[in-house]
Design a protein that fits this description.
- This protein has about 725 residues and is α/β, with parallel strands linked by helices.
- The chain is about 40% helix and about 10% strand.
- The protein has 30 helices and 21 strands.
- Strands 8-7-9-10-6-11 form a six-stranded parallel beta sheet. Strands 12-21-20-13-19 form a five-stranded parallel beta sheet.
- A hairpin with a 5-residue loop joins strand 15 (about 610-615) and strand 16 (about 625-630).
- Helix 9 crosses helix 10 (about 225-245), helix 10 (about 225-245) packs across helix 12 (about 280-290) and helix 16 (about 375-385) runs antiparallel to helix 19.
- It starts with 6 loop residues before the first helix and ends with a helix.
C-alpha cells in the first residue's frame, strides 16, 4: 500500500511535498494536502497505468480541485460547486483580507495561488478521474457539485427523509381528522384568542401544520412567537393523543447547545404559566399539569449519547429514541452530519417539529440546513404580495380552511397594486415552475414574520438587513449617530447611569458609533469605558444570583475571535478598564464577578458549550464557578475550578456564540477597514446573516460600532453554503 505519491506523479501535481504546497498556496492546510494526496493514491493503487496519471495538466487541475473540496468543507460547505473556482485564481495572498498584515513588509514574497480552467474542462477532468475506480465512493461527483463520500451520504440521507415527509400526513383518516377538528373547536379558542382585524393567525397555522404533518418546520425571527406557538402545539398534540388513546405519550425536546436547551425549557414554562394565569379552564390546566414533567430539553449530544459512549452515538438506526414527539429548537445551528444522526435515531412513527430562524447564520460545521429545508423566496414573495394562496397545495389549503375559520378568505390580502402584483406573481410562478413541485414542498413549513416585540426600531433594522435595503438601513442609523469624540463618560452621573442593569427610559433604542476607531485600529478610550461600565453592576450585586441575572442584561458582540477588535483582545481591554474601578480584579487570574463561558461539554457536571456563569465567593470566602440551575430558575449551582471543563472570559462574545441567546442590550462591534492596508477588502466572515443575527439578539436597545462602508459590505453580502440538498428536495 502506498503512503505517498511517487515522485514522478507528485511533481505533476505541482508539489513534491506537503511543505511545497503550503509554501505556494495561502490558507491551505496540511489536512487539505493529505486529503487530495490520499484520493489520488487510492486510484493509483487500482490502475497505475491509466493514461490520466501521465496527463500533467489534468492531474494538476484535479489535485487542486481536491484541495478545494477539502478547503471548502473546512469553511462549512457540504460540497464544492465547481463554478466557484472555475476560471478563478484561488489561494492568492494578494486577494486576502488581513488587518495589520505582515505581508506589507518590504521584500516579502506573496503566494501567487493557483488558476483553474473552465467549468466544462474541470467537469471533464473529474469524470475521467471517477472512471478509474468507479466502485470507490470516497469522492462523489453529482455535477456541478463534488462531494467527499461522507458528506454525500449525509446529504442523501437528509434529502430522502424530508422528501418523503413532504407528502406524509397524519390526518389520513376520518377519525384522525375528527380528533383534530375537535381540538380546533374546543381548545384553540382558549390557546389562540381571536383578535379584531388580525387576518391569518400564522401561529395557529403553525400548530395546525404541526398536527397535520408527520414532520413540520416553524421558522421565524426573534420575537415572532416561535416558543408561544410550540407551547400551544404541544398542548394541542397532547389533547389529540388523549382523545385517541389512553397510552402514556413520550415527549422529547432538544437544542444544539446547553444554553439554547435551557432557554427552550424556560420559555415554554413561561408560556404555560401565562396560560394558567389568564384562564382557569380545567382542560387547559390538566394538559399543562401533564406536560410539565416532560419539559426537560437536552443538548442534541446528550439526547443521542454522543461523546458519552465512544465515537458512535448511543442512539442510532439500530437503537432508536423512545419518543412519540421530538421538538428541536435553534435548527439553524445544526449541521448536516448532526441532522443525519438525529434522523437515524428517530422512530418512524414519531412526530418531528423543527424550530429556528432560517435567516440567521448557518451552523459552524457543514451545510446551511434550515435554509435548504424551507423555501424563503416563496414566503418572502407571498408576504410582499399579501397573497399566500400559492404556498400550500390545494388539498392542504382545504384542510387548513376546515380547521381555521377565515383562512380561506384571508389567504389573499392584496397588499400591492395591480401592476406590481402581476410582475412579482409572474416571477414567483417562474420560480415555482423551476423548483418543480414547490407548493407541496411548503406544506409542512410555516414562516412567522410578525414581531410581537415593542421595540419596533430593532425589528425594522433587522428587516432592512434581511432584505438588503441599504438606504432605509442607513436612514434608520443616521438619526442614532453618536459623536465618539464629543461623548464624555468620565463624569460621575454618567458612570452611575451606565452601571445600572436596566437602560434609562431616555436612552435611544439604537445608537451608532460610526467613528469609533483609533488610528491603530482599536476602539477609542471613551467608548471602551462606556462598554466596561455596562458590566459594573455585576460587581455591585448583593449576591451571586443577582450577578448572574445582571450578566444576562448586556453583551458586547464581535464578528471575530482574533485581532484588535476580536473577543480575545476586547475581553482583556474591558477587564483592564474595570480594574480601574474595582481593585480586586486581577487580570489573568480568577476574581469575584468574573464572567466565564464553558467551551467544552461535560456530561458528568451537566455543563455544556455556551453555558455562562460568574466567579463568586462562597460563605468561606473561597472562589467558586457559579452557573444558573436549569431545574430551578433564579438559583445557581457552584463548582470548583479544578472540576470545570475548558472555559474562557466572556465580557465579549462572537456573534456565532450568541445564537440561541438574547440580551436586553447589545453592542455589535465590526472590524474596521484600514485605508492604507494593502489587503483592503473586508473579511470574508462579514455577511448579512452575521449582522442580522447580532441585531436580533437585542430585546430593548442596540449599539452598532462600525463604519458605513463595513455595514454596507455586510448587508451587500449573503452567507452562501454550497449544497445540493435543496435541488434534491425539489427534483
Amino acid at each position: 500500500m502506498l503512503f505517498s505519491l511517487p515522485s514522478s506523479i507528485a511533481k505533476q501535481t505541482g508539489y513534491s511535498s506537503c511543505s511545497d504546497c503550503l509554501l505556494a498556496l495561502h490558507d491551505i492546510q496540511s489536512i487539505d494536502y493529505y486529503f487530495a494526496n490520499n484520493a489520488i493514491i487510492k486510484r493509483l493503487e487500482v490502475d497505475a497505468e491509466n493514461d490520466f496519471f501521465n496527463d500533467q495538466k489534468s492531474l494538476e487541475q484535479l489535485f487542486h480541485v481536491l484541495l478545494a473540496l477539502s478547503y471548502f468543507q473546512r469553511q462549512g460547505h457540504s460540497c464544492l460547486d465547481i463554478a466557484a473556482i472555475a476560471e478563478k485564481t484561488c489561494w492568492s495572498e494578494a486577494d486576502v483580507t488581513q488587518y495589520g498584515s505582515s505581508f506589507n513588509q518590504q521584500g516579502a514574497k506573496l503566494k501567487a495561488g493557483f488558476v483553474f480552467v473552465s467549468a466544462a474542462k474541470l467537469s471533464d477532468v473529474i469524470q475521467r478521474f471517477e472512471t478509474i475506480s468507479p466502485s470507490r465512493n470516497d469522492i462523489q461527483w453529482d455535477e456541478p457539485n463534488l462531494y467527499s463520500g461522507r458528506y454525500a451520504n449525509y446529504e442523501n440521507e437528509v434529502a430522502d427523509f424530508f422528501k418523503q415527509q413532504q407528502t406524509q400526513f397524519l390526518v389520513d383518516s376520518e377519525p384522525a381528522f375528527r380528533s383534530l377538528k375537535q381540538c380546533a373547536d374546543e381548545l384553540w379558542p382558549t390557546l389562540f384568542p381571536a383578535k379584531a382585524g388580525q387576518g391569518i393567525d400564522w401561529q395557529q397555522v403553525s400548530a395546525a401544520n404541526g398536527l397535520i404533518s408527520q414532520t413540520s418546520i416553524i421558522s421565524g425571527g426573534a420575537g415572532t412567537g416561535k416558543t408561544y406557538t410550540v407551547a400551544r402545539l404541544l398542548l394541542s398534540w397532547l389533547y389529540t393523543q388523549k382523545k385517541d388513546s389512553s397510552t402514556r405519550v413520550k415527549l422529547m425536546l432538544a437544542a444544539p447547545t446547553g444554553k439554547a436547551a435551557q432557554r427552550l425549557n424556560e420559555s415554554i414554562l413561561v408560556e404555560f404559566t401565562q396560560l394558567l394565569n389568564s384562564n382557569k379552564e380545567n382542560q387547559v390546566m390538566t394538559l399543562i399539569t401533564d406536560l410539565m414533567p416532560m419539559i426537560q430539553a437536552k443538548t442534541i449530544h446528550r439526547l443521542l449519547g454522543l461523546g458519552m459512549y465512544g465515537i458512535e452515538p448511543k442512539y442510532n438506526h439500530k437503537k432508536q429514541l423512545d419518543c412519540d414527539f421530538l421538538v428541536i429548537d435553534e435548527v439553524s445551528m445544526i449541521d448536516l452530519a448532526m441532522m443525519a444522526k438525529l434522523l437515524r435515531a428517530l422512530p418512524k412513527t414519531a412526530k418531528l417539529v423543527l424550530i429556528g430562524d432560517a435567516n440567521q447564520l448557518p451552523s459552524v460545521e457543514s451545510g446551511g440546513l434550515l435554509k435548504d429545508l424551507v423555501n424563503q423566496t416563496a414566503w418572502q414573495d407571498a408576504a410582499i404580495l399579501g397573497d399566500y394562496s400559492g404556498i400550500y397545495s390545494q388539498s392542504h389549503k382545504q384542510l387548513l380552511s376546515e380547521l381555521l375559520p377565515g383562512f380561506a378568505t384571508n389567504i389573499r390580502q392584496n397588499k400591492m397594486n395591480a401592476d406590481e402584483h402581476s410582475e412579482l406573481e409572474a416571477n414567483s410562478c417562474a420560480s415555482t415552475n423551476a423548483n418543480n413541485g414547490n407548493s407541496i414542498y411548503c406544506n409542512h413549513v410555516t414562516f412567522l414574520q410578525k414581531s410581537m416585540r415593542s421595540q419596533n426600531e430593532i425589528t425594522q433594522l433587522a428587516q432592512n438587513i434581511l432584505l438588503g435595503q441599504l438606504a432605509p438601513f442607513a436612514e434608520l442609523l443616521s438619526g442614532a449617530k453618536i459623536d465618539s469624540e464629543a461623548s464624555n463618560f468620565d463624569n460621575k452621573q454618567t458612570t452611575a447611569q451606565l452601571s445600572l442593569p436596566i437602560t434609562e427610559p431616555e436612552t435611544p433604542v439604537i445608537t451608532w458609533h460610526e467613528d469609533a476607531y483609533t488610528q491603530a485600529g482599536t476602539l477609542k478610550n471613551t467608548l471602551l469605558e462606556q462598554i466596561a461600565q455596562r458590566y459594573a453592576c455585576i460587581f455591585e450585586s448583593r449576591d451571586v444570583d443577582q450577578a448572574i441575572q445582571r450578566l444576562k442584561q448586556y453583551r458586547l458582540l464581535s464578528a471575530t475571535k482574533k485581532g484588535r477588535l476580536g473577543t480575545e483582545f476586547m475581553n482583556t481591554q474591558i477587564e483592564q478598564q474595570l480594574r480601574k474601578r474595582f481593585s480586586h480584579i486581577d487580570v489573568g487570574q480568577m476574581y469575584r464577578g468574573m464572567p466565564i463561558m464553558i467551551v467544552q461539554n461535560d456530561y458528568r457536571l451537566h455543563l455544556f458549550n455556551g453555558d455562562i456563569g460568574v466567579i463568586w465567593s462562597n460563605e468561606d470566602g473561597q472562589l467558586r464557578a457559579c452557573f444558573p440551575d436549569p431545574d430551578m430558575p433564579e438559583t445557581h449551582q457552584s463548582f470548583s475550578f479544578i472540576s470545570l471543563p475548558a472555559f474562557e472570559l466572556v465580557y465579549a462574545m462572537t456573534i456565532h456564540k450568541t445564537q440561541g441567546s438574547e440580551f436586553e442590550h447589545v453592542d455589535i462591534l465590526l472590524p474596521n477597514i484600514v485605508a492604507n492596508n494593502a489587503m483592503l477588502h473586508s473579511s470574508q466572515h462579514l455577511s448579512r446573516e452575521l449582522l442580522y443575527t447580532g441585531v436580533t439578539r437585542a430585546k430593548q436597545s442596540i449599539g452598532i460600532i462600525a463604519s458605513l462602508p463595513v455595514l454596507n459590505d455586510c448587508i451587500g453580502k449573503t452567507s452562501t453554503r454550497f449544497s445540493g440538498l435543496k435541488r434534491k428536495l425539489t427534483s
